[in-house]
Specification:
By secondary structure, the protein is of the alpha/beta class. The chain is built from eleven helices and eight strands. The chain has a single domain (about 5-245), classed as TIM Barrel (Alpha-Beta Barrel). α2 (about 30-35) packs parallel to α3, α7 (about 160-165) runs antiparallel to α8 and α10 (about 220-230) packs across α11 (about 230-245). Bound molecules: pyridoxine-5'-phosphate.
């Protein structure tokens, strides 16, 4: 059992709303501060190559406004690595953006791009940034992440959540079993295990209950729920669901 399960709140979609009008509101920096005050253990933000939500200036502004760690999600490109090395966030999660970087399950293709990714993460690690690979719960991807020296993997829960939403519970349970096996394999290799994508109050329980999991990263649902109940209550509700599952 790892220590208390951490909740990283992804604020990308506050920036999506801001950018829909082209102005400054709603402010993702304020969202990060509110999330911290509401008990988030970290803030997650993805600076996409197309800057569709988070923008370059947001990264420094968020880091300057919070005392909890920033998990910087980034594609494995020279440009993004330069930005990460400039800002030195606590963590960098390497995510796929282009089709060719993605496995069929939606995670990063680490096994097929091992040599490049092994070299790519060295400067990040040397700078003290905790590197994680966002991958499917596929033994080949987990083992490749371990081989290239990543200390952390984030397993992709998107398919599990989609199958739940579609009401295909047999397929959902099969996907959950695959995630459970993946968590065990990663933990056996000594990797720290994070999970995320698509998690909601309805789907978080079985994931939060896995004792090897150290951190969940959750965004879209929380920002959507915040429209109805406010961000602090949305986050508090997720914290309660995680703690209940873990107990
Ligand atoms: N983890 C990673 C690596 C992600 O890329 C995302 C989405 O940006 C999330 C977690 C959060 O997913 P969601 O917004 O669906 O909760």
């Amino acid at each position: 059992m790892t220590d208390r399960l951490r909740l990283g709140v992804n604020i990308d979609h506050v920036a999506t709303l801001r950018n829909a009008r082209g102005g400054a509101l709603p402010d993702p920096v304020r969202a990060a501060q509110v999330a911290e005050a509401a008990g988030a253990d970290g803030i997650t933000a993805h600076l996409r190559e197309d800057r569709r939500h988070i923008r370059d200036a947001d990264i420094a502004a968020i880091m300057g406004a919070i005392t909890i760690p920033l998990n910087f999600e980034m594609a494995a490109t020279e440009e993004m690595r330069g930005i990460a090395l400039h800002h030195l966030p606590h963590a960098a999660c390497i995510v796929p953006e282009r089709r060719e970087e993605r496995t069929t399950e939606g995670g990063l293709e680490v096994a097929g791009d091992q040599n490049r990714l092994a070299d790519f993460i060295v400067p990040l690690r040397e700078a003290g940034i905790r590197v994680s690979m966002f991958i499917a719960a596929d033994p080949a991807q987990i083992e490749a992440s371990h081989r290239i020296g990543a200390p952390v993997v984030e397993l992709h829960t998107g398919a599990y959540c989609d199958l739940h939403a579609e009401g295909d519970f047999a397929a959902r349970d099969a996907e959950l079993a695959r995630l459970v096996d993946g968590v065990k394999r990663a933990a056996d290799l000594g990797l720290e295990v994070h999970m995320g994508h698509g998690l909601t109050y309805d789907t978080v329980g079985p994931i939060a209950a896995l004792p090897e999991v150290a951190e969940l990263n959750i965004g879209h649902f929380l920002i959507g729920e915040a429209v109805f109940v406010g961000l602090p209550e949305a986050i508090a509700g997720m914290r309660r669901a995680m703690d209940a599952a873990r107990a």
